[in-house]
Structures are given as C-alpha cells and as structure tokens.
C-alpha cells in the first residue's frame, strides 16, 4: 500500500514537473520571439494543441502573457497572437563612472521605465553608496515601482570583474577596494552583481537588436573599452578581460597611455582627446564642429577619426562582424558615420560597403541598461 502511494506520488510530481517545463518553454518561446500563436508554438515545441492551449490559459491566468491581437493564418481562420506582459517584473541598472552616476529601471522588454543621470564623482566610501541608494529609493518611489516586482540590480563599472561577479581583478580608471561588494551590500537591499561597463553596454545593444549575430561594441568614453557579443552573450575570454580594445596598439611608440604603455587606442580615441579642447565638455566640442570658421576643431576630429578607422578596420579583420560605435563619443557619431565609414573602407582590401559600422542605439544609459539585463535573463530562463 505504501509502495503504491509512493509510486502515485512520484507520477504526480513527474506530471507537475512536465507541466511546469512546458509552461516555461512556451513562455520563453513567446518572450524571445516577441510574440507567437498557438499553432506556431505547437510546431516549434512539438506539443499538442490542447497542451499548448492549457498552458497558455494558465500563463494568462498568472498574468504573465496577454492576447495581443490576431492575424490571418494559412487555414483561413484568424490565429491569436500572444505576448509577454512586460511590467510583471522590473530590474535595476546602475552605472558608476569616474564622475557620473546613472540609474535606470527597466521592464522585461528592456524598456526604460525610469532613469536619472547625475554628476557625482566616484569615491569608494559608505557615504557614496548611501547617496546612491537614496537616489534609487527616490526613483522607485517617484515612479511607483512595487518593490516586490523588483528582481534585483546590476552595477556596471570601468573595472575588470572576476567570474563570481562580486570581486574586481583590475581597476585603474576608478579606485576601488577589494571589499566593494560587501560595502555596497551594507546599503543596497536587493540582490545585485557587479559587471564591466563596456560588456554591459554591448549586452544592451545586442538585446535591443535581437539579431543573435556576432557583434563588436566599441565604447568611446573617458576610457576606451569594448565587448564582443556571441549572439546574446558576452564573450569574456579566458581571464575575463576579453575586448579591452582600448589597449590595442594603434601607433607603435606613440602617446603614453594611462596604463603605462605607449600607442594604445585609449590615448587617441578616448572622450578626453576631444573634450579637453572644450574644458571637458564633449557636447560643446561637437557644437563647435558645426560652427563656421572652426577648422582647428575639424583638424582635431579628423585625426581622431583616422585613429578610430584603424581600430575599426582591425576589429573587422579579426571578427568579421558589425562594429557598433558606442559610449559618449558614439552617441554623437550619427552625423559623421559616413566619414568614418569612408576612412575605414580606405584601409580595408575586402569591403565595398561600410554598413557594418553603425552607431549605438543607447546613449549614456547603455551600461546601466545592460547591467539590468542579468536579472531579467535569469527570470526568463528559470520560468
């Protein structure tokens, strides 16, 4: 009798597990495809239509998906489309730079629901993290974000992060202590992890495009960094320091870089190379470019583009994929994209078209958005 009961219980648990797995698979298919129908789900997952219907009804009852309209199917009858409800959960993204702090709240569709960017020089102190957490709480309150819907936070920084996403192996742009994770944890009440800023920005761009293709993101900020995207995933390398493009040598025996070497891309294409001519104001530099009789600024920018073209061409040769220009300088490059394409093509023996070079979608908020994606990715994968 006891054996029979145990078998029946095992069968019930197995059935529940299968139902849960089917619901998770259906949810993920709808999420990654942006929308889907019963028929398409049945075909892609190899599930019967009644099984799909039952799981769709349960996902709707749980508030996870909704009916997004219909379209004409091959059978002549209209097929219902389903999409995931984006505001079921939220994730927090924080980007810390040398002089600025950015905070965003994104929903499951990576829409920025709330955000702020403020000038706040970084200092690895309790006072700084207390300020950061007060700003987070204020942002959540101002936009009425329910705390129970918050999955967690990602914090991006211009440092190299170890695989545990909690400890830092290398930092020169900002000064941090070995116990930074514990120090932040004393003030931040939700689960969080640390991320490299350029990797986070690349992740945001890759998720936005949704193409799943290999992509290189070149971050042109106060320091130069980057990310190599293998589909929707960051390629981190054997030592978690892949894509440190800022330290590629573009001019042998050239200018001294802050890392101590000479001729690094960072010494020629960081934001400071331009903004130093306008008292640190990058926006003003690009405004000067559009004024008449400013040939001096154009000479500076042309030299900047020459070195950038060398880097872009080298990256294209290495990876044979799209190159996305991002960071603070990248956000101004739309008006000059044809010029950089021309310069890069002049160095390339294979290409006839420079469309592989494009400008980032996200501007100053890219790293914060990318840091927020981690918890969303975990939520979807664990459904």
Our measurement of the CA-to-CA distance between the termini, rounded to an integer number of angstroms, reads 36 Å
Rg calc: 24 Å
Query: Quick one: CATH superfamily of the largest domain?
Result: ATPase, nucleotide binding domain
Task: Calculate the mean pLDDT score and round it.
Answer: 91
Tell me the domain tally: 3
Low-confidence stretches: 5-14
- Our estimate of the beta-strand percent is 15-25%
Number of DSSP helices?
13
The major sheet is characterized as:
5 strands, mixed
Number of strands: 15
User: In percent, how helical is the residue content?
Assistant: 40-55%
Can you walk through the features of this model?
This protein has 383 residues and is α/β, with parallel strands linked by helices. It has helices spanning 2-33, 38-45, 49-61, 126-142, 180-185, 197-209, 266-269, 272-275, 282-289, 295-319, 327-330, 337-347, 366-381, and strands at residues 36-37, 65-72, 78-84, 90-96, 100-107, 112-119, 150-157, 160-161, 168-170, 192-196, 215-220, 224-230, 233-234, 322-326, 357-359. The chain folds into three domains: 2-84, Winged helix-like DNA-binding domain superfamily/Winged helix DNA-binding domain (Arc Repressor Mutant, subunit A), CATH 1.10.10.10; 88-200 and 366-381, 2-Layer Sandwich (Nucleotidyltransferase, domain 5), CATH 3.30.420.40; 211-359, ATPase, nucleotide binding domain (Nucleotidyltransferase, domain 5). The protein is built from 13 helices and 15 strands. It starts with a helix and ends with a helix. Mean pLDDT is 91; it is low at 5-14.
């Amino acid at each position: 009798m006891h054996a029979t009961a145990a078998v029946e219980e095992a069968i019930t648990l197995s059935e529940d597990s299968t139902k849960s797995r089917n619901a998770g698979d259906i949810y993920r298919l709808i999420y990654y495809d942006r929308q889907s129908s019963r028929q398409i789900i049945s075909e892609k997952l190899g599930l019967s239509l009644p099984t799909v219907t039952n799981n769709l009804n349960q996902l709707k009852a749980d508030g996870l998906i909704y009916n997004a309209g219909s379209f004409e199917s091959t059978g002549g009858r209209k097929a219902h489309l389903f999409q995931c409800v984006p505001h079921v959960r939220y994730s927090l993204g924080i980007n810390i730079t040398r002089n600025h702090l950015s905070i965003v709240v994104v929903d499951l569709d990576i829409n920025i629901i709330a955000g702020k960017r403020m000038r706040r020089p970084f200092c690895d102190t309790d006072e700084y993290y207390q300020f950061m957490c007060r700003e987070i709480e204020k942002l959540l309150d101002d936009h009425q974000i329910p705390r129970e819907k918050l999955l967690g936070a990602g914090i991006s920084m211009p440092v190299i992060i170890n695989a545990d996403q909690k400890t830092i192996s290398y930092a020169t742009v900002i000064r941090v202590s070995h116990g930074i994770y514990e120090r932040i944890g004393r003030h931040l009440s939700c689960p969080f992890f640390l991320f490299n800023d350029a990797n986070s920005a690349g992740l945001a761009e890759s998720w936005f495009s949704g193409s799943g293709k290999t992509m290189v993101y070149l971050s042109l900020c106060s320091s130069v960094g980057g990310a190599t995207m293998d589909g929707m995933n960051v390629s981190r390398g054997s030592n978690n320091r892949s894509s440190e493009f800022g330290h590629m040598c573009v001019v042998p025996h050239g200018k001294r870089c802050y890392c101590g070497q000479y001729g690094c891309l960072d010494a020629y294409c960081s934001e400071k190379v331009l903004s130093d001519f306008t008292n640190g104001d990058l926006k003003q530099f690009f405004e000067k470019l559009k004024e008449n009789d400013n040939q001096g600024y154009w000479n500076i920018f042309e030299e900047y583009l020459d070195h950038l073209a060398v880097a872009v061409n080298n990256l294209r040769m290495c990876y044979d994929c799209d190159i996305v220009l991002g960071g603070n300088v990248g956000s101004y490059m739309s008006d000059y994209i044809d010029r950089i394409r021309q310069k890069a093509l002049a160095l390339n023996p294979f290409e006839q078209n420079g469309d592989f070079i494009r400008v980032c979608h996200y501007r100053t908020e890219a790293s914060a958005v990318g840091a927020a994606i981690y918890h969303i990715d975990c939520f979807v994968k664990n459904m």
